[in-house]
Amino acid sequence: MIIKKVHLYKIDMKLLSPFSTSYGTVQDRELILLEVEDEQGFTGWGEVVAFSSPWYTEETIQTCFHMLDDFLIPSLLHQQLQKPEDIQKLFKPLKRNNMAKAALDCAIWDLYAKRQNKPLSKVIGGVRSAVEAGVVVGLNDISIMKEQIKTYMKDGYKRFKVKIKPGADYELLKQIRDEFPNIPLMADANSAYTLSDSDSLKKLDELNLMMIEQPLSSDDILDHRLLQKQMKTPICLDESIVSYEDARHAIEQRSCKIINVKIGRVGGMSVAKQIHDLCAQHGVRLWVGGMLEAGISRAHNIALATLPSFTIPGDISASSRYWEKDIIKPEVEVEAGVIKVKGKPGIGYEIDKKFIKTITAFEKEYK
Ligand code: MG
Fold first, then answer.
1. At what angle do helices 295-304 and 269-282 cross, to 10 degrees?
2. Does the structure show a pLDDT above 80 at 175?
3. Is 262 labeled as catalytic in the residue annotation?
4. What spacing in Å lies between the alpha carbon of 25 and ligand 1's midpoint?
């Protein structure tokens, strides 16, 4: 396939309610959407999931635009690709900037699946016809968090993740655990702790958590190894794993027992698949992370979650959890805690271009 055209949309969305983590609060959500078109007129879509400021990784929507506009799109246009993974070779001389790369990589996967008239989940080797949905509860007043959990339990969500930070951790989680003794509960610290907090982190072992996600520094692998040795609760790495090599190092060092894969963070579906295969060989369990994303990225996440070793419910919620209206049709729906995988070619959802036009702040076409 040869990519003849790329259309970029910078869109502005607004989360239904503000979302707080140990880093800060998000409500206005800028995103970049990419539509790629090949020589036969097939199209594929990808979404840049970076945030407006560099609180999660170093990338932002602006840095992603710069990378796409000046380097990535020009290096892709008119190149012959045999398979989607070829894009990784093409981008290899351009260091990191994974979220910008991932959006193009995912768009190529969608297009590649459509060329074969097959669902993306099947093309990447997925084995599930439905994926389990988990939900994230942002930091808030404890009574509000408990109410949210009750509502999500009624919706059937299979896993509940609570954001924590120093001062809002053990006591907060204990209150939740006391009220909901049997829910699959986990905590995400978004790297808010250091090894000197080991004693307070070890206390979390009392609470029967499925895992604690990214307790220590966002680029650390070694200290997590030391912490995991002291803790019974499995450590899951998120921010620390930005490449296949990071996953290999973390597994060899026994720094975690679980990995959260975010397609954007690792640079695309191609790398996410490689990390999956590596973890499958080593018995490391996986789940798909979320980025407060819109429907295109959500659809790619659903496809990824159909791979065999994604055995823990991911941060893949219904569109209505975050948005008044999503950019895909139909919207992603969770029924009894599961999302049915679409059988249509590519990501399986129609793109609501008419709606996208109404929220587009800027667009550009590359030929
Ligand atoms: Mg996380």
1. 30
2. yes
3. yes
4. 14
How many other CB atoms sit within 10 Å of the CB of residue 356? 18
Given a contact cutoff of 8 angstroms between Cβ atoms, the answer to whether 100 and 75 are in contact is: no
Ligand 1 centroid distance, CA of 291 (Å): 9
| Distance in angstroms (rounded) separating the CA atoms of residues 219 and 58 | 11
Ligand 1 centroid–CA 301 distance in Å is 15
d(CA 30, CA 360): 10
Specify the residue for token string 């090949």.
38
Determine the distance separating the centroid of ligand 1 and the alpha carbon of 157, expressed in angstroms: 18
Which residues sit with Cβ closer than 5 angstroms to ligand 1, an ion? 188, 213, 238
Confidence at residue 22, expressed as pLDDT on a 0 to 100 scale: 67
For residue 344, pLDDT over 80 is answered with: yes
Triad 11, 241, 86: Cα angle to 5°: 70
Q: What is the mean pLDDT of the chain?
A: 96
Cut 0.85: pTM above it: yes
Burial of 11 (0-12, 13-18, 19+ CB in 10 A): buried
* Residue 118 confidence (pLDDT) above 70: yes
Predicted confidence (pLDDT) per residue in 188-220, tens digit: 999 999 999 999 999 999 999 999 999 999 999
pLDDT at position 317 over 90: no
Q: Which of 114, 163, 273, 342 is catalytic?
A: 163
Q: Are 57 and 239 in contact (CB under 8 A)?
A: yes
> How many helices (H) and strands (E) would you count in the chain?
14, 15
